[in-house]
Design brief:
mainly alpha
Length: 48
């Protein structure tokens, strides 16, 4: 019997759109986490 990681139901276009949306969300989160980190570092320096 063959095992599968995922079962995808729907059109290829729909799947590709979901993957693109997922990438956009991940990019947004990473960008904002980076900005938050820089802000936190600056704030910590100001407290000294």
């Amino acid at each position: 019997m063959r095992e599968f990681d995922k079962l995808i139901v729907g059109s290829k276009e729909e799947y590709e759109r979901m993957q693109a949306n997922r990438k956009n969300v991940l990019d947004f989160v990473q960008e904002n986490v980076h900005r938050l980190s820089l802000t936190d570092i600056t704030s910590m320096k100001e407290l000294r």
